[in-house]
Amino acid sequence: MTTAPAALTEPWSPAEFEARLRAVGQERYHDRHPFNVRMHDGDLSPAEVRRWIANRFHYQRHIPVKDALITAKLDSSRLRRMWLRRIEDHDGRREGEGGIERWLRLGEAAGLDRGSLQAGESVLPGVRLAVAGYVNFCRLRPPLEAVAASLTELTAPDLMRLRIDAFERHYAWIEPSGLDYFRARVGQGRRDSGEALALVLEWARTREDQQRAVAALTFKCDVLWALLDAVQQAGQRGDQPAGRRGQG
Predict the structure, then answer these.
(1) Do the beta carbons of residue 187 and residue 91 sit within 8 Å?
(2) Residue 244 forms beta bridges with which residues?
(3) What's the sign of the alpha-carbon dihedral 32, 48, 172, 170?
(4) CB-based contact 73:142 (threshold 8 Å)
(5) Going residue by residue through the chain (248 aa), what tens digit of pLDDT does each one get?
(6) Are the C-beta atoms of residues 12 and 209 closer than 8 Å to each other?
(7) Taken in order 6, 10, 15, 16, is the CA torsion positive or negative?
(8) d(CA 154, CA 158)
């Protein structure tokens, strides 16, 4: 019986492990998806922007759901308090607050009906499948992998700044207040990713653990990519988002 060389089985150093995690985002994050590239270049039609807003809302409204599943896995009050703040960021402390509310206002600023957004009338089957896959991943996988999957937030703040600039320059027909979601996520994403990265670096003690964390982050990137695949393909078919209030 032979054993693998130690260099192939011993843990990566913290610096190398972090570099590998960051490389996943740099290489696979959905900012590289052709739909997002077109968005930031100002090449989307109003119908395409509305379709993206309506379908992305299905993902946004499930963020606190997956975070509640992660919170239930954490074994200390300190960690649960830290992760509960993410739920509050999206659900708000009271009605009319939080990231989900800000996304609804984005939809309204783009001419979509709030009730139609909440009813999910325009959500594509591929988007439902991608979001369900992510929620179930957080439900079924251990804390290390569920938290590691959230590390797309390492790349998100830069994307939010790029998106704000793109919308202000190319999509002036959207009311400026509709961009508040993106503005809030710049700071929140930086804070959240720092906390999650610290946990993953602490928890992944073996090479196997580290590889599972990298695989979890890769999976999350694939979820976001699959969501945009569905939105892009619907545009090629000419599907129209439901609940449009006006012309743009």
Answers:
(1) no
(2) 112
(3) positive
(4) yes
(5) 445 566 678 999 999 999 999 999 999 999 999 999 999 999 999 999 999 999 999 999 999 999 999 999 999 999 999 999 999 999 999 999 999 999 999 999 999 999 999 999 899 999 999 999 999 999 999 999 999 999 999 999 999 999 999 999 999 999 999 999 999 999 999 999 999 999 999 999 999 999 999 999 999 999 999 999 999 999 787 666 655 554 44
(6) no
(7) positive
(8) 9
Helices (H), the chain: 6-9, 14-28, 34-41, 46-60, 63-71, 77-91, 99-109, 114-119, 125-140, 143-149, 156-170, 180-203, 207-237
Q: pTM of this prediction?
A: 0.91
- The HSE-up count of residue 218 (CA atoms within 13 Å, CB side) is 8
**Plot region of 62 (φ>0 → left; ψ -120 to 50 → alpha; else → beta):** alpha
How far apart (Å, rounded) are the C-alpha atoms in residues 34 and 235? 13
Cα distance between residue 248 and residue 245, in whole Å:
10
Phi, psi of 112 (to 5 degrees): -95, 150
CA atoms within a 13 Å half-sphere pointing along the CA-CB vector of 69: 18
Please, which residues have CB within 8 angstroms of residue 94's CB and are 6 or more apart in sequence? Answer: none
Helix orientation angle between 180-203 and 14-28, rounded to the nearest 10 degrees:
140
**222, two tokens:** 């694939």
**Other beta carbons within 10 Å of 133:** 14
